[in-house]
Specification:
The chain contains 11 helices and 12 strands. By secondary structure, the chain is an alpha/beta fold. It folds into 2 domains: 87 residues; 213 residues, no CATH class.
Length: 348
């Protein structure tokens, strides 16, 4: 295909093409904000000069047009990026498959989404020894620490809706933060009173609202050496095993599009060993992109097909299997000490 023809065909259409390829429209407002490739806070601006999808990153990525942004986002060559763009133009682009573990509702108005998330968060309480949320993590070999209290809470009676029917169930509620560090969503893990996952169709649900690229549940302080995994349980398990702060990107798609904080210099990607290969593929795509940004990256995958890092923790695998022994032990608290400011809310 001729590059000139592609430029003409895409002119004025980048606000449709880029979101179709997984780059959220929140990055395309024309205002300074985080870069969809290398993160940060306000280093990136989509200026769309002459309707060619142009952009500027003041840190690692430089500047370019829409095809170059696609190339960097997927860490691929120009030809592969152009094919992806052509697929959108032809109406043949299909998002990569993801494991349907977390149910995500459609986006709603941002202010209304934050209001709903804030209400759920304020109704919840710190996780206390013996409550269903505490039991849920204990049964997975995880003893929570005060460090986790800012982003994890227990809701005693949270509404669960399915097929027109509702129920009130205990739940873990986890604050999802965007790359700026603003609370943007809540992951709900519905439980029974004994700390088991509730026997419902979708025990894990994100609330209605946005989930920008780079969003995560921050289960520890950002650090020069840190990790990222898909789910909360795997992130906490990997943190215990390897002695690192590990954030949860919620889904395989979230993992692939995760953006590291500015403090990160070395990143460990803790992937699930999925039978489908989705988790491994997402981890390798993330690693490729982060290495292109000059970060040191190591991908860790459990040795058995179908196993994740929480399985590895529960099995108390040998040091030869995980590469190293646990570097630290968690300390238990009666109730997690939540910091004064809430990560979710308006005007907090």
């Amino acid at each position: 295909m001729a590059a000139e023809k592609l430029i003409e065909r895409t002119k004025g259409r980048w606000h449709l093409i880029l979101p179709a390829l997984g780059i959220p429209s929140s990055f395309l407002t024309g205002r300074h904000g985080p870069c969809p490739v290398c993160g940060g806070v306000d280093r990136f601006r989509f200026d769309n000069s002459q309707n060619n999808g142009t952009w500027i990153c003041g840190k690692n990525c430089g500047a370019g047009d829409g095809v170059e942004l696609v190339r960097r986002f997927f860490a691929c060559d120009f030809y592969s990026a152009a094919l992806k763009v052509e697929s959108v133009l032809a109406g043949n682009f299909a998002p990569e498959p993801a494991i349907a573990v977390v149910h995500q509702k459609p986006e709603i108005d941002t202010a209304e989404s934050k209001r709903r998330c804030s209400l759920v968060w304020e109704e919840a309480s710190p996780i206390t020894k013996g409550d269903p949320a505490w039991l849920y993590f204990q049964k997975r070999g995880i003893t929570l620490t005060a460090d986790h209290g800012r982003y994890l809470r227990h809701h005693h009676r949270l509404v669960y809706s399915e097929a027109g029917k509702t129920a009130l169930l205990p739940a873990v509620v986890a604050a999802v933060l965007d790359p700026r560090g603003d609370g943007i969503n809540i992951l709900r893990v519905y439980l029974d009173k004994h700390g088991n996952k509730a026997e419902v169709a979708a025990p894990k649900k994100l609330m209605a609202g946005s989930f920008p690229a780079g969003s995560a549940i921050r289960l520890g302080q950002a650090a020069p050496k840190m990790g990222v995994a898909e789910g909360i349980e795997n992130a906490l398990a990997a943190s215990i095993i390897f002695g690192l702060p590990v954030w949860a990107a919620v889904t395989a798609g979230g993992l692939k599009r995760w953006l590291p904080p500015e403090e990160a210099r070395e990143v460990f990607v803790f992937a699930d060993n999925d039978l489908s290969g989705v988790g491994q593929s997402a981890a390798e795509a993330l690693a490729l992109r982060l290495r292109s940004q000059q970060l040191a990256v190591t991908v860790r995958i459990p040795g058995m097909v179908g196993e994740d890092w929480n399985d590895a923790l529960m099995a108390r695998v040998s040091a030869s299997y995980i590469g190293r022994l646990p570097a630290r032990a968690s300390h238990e608290t009666g109730a997690l000490d939540l910091q004064a400011s809430s990560p979710i809310g308006i005007g907090h």
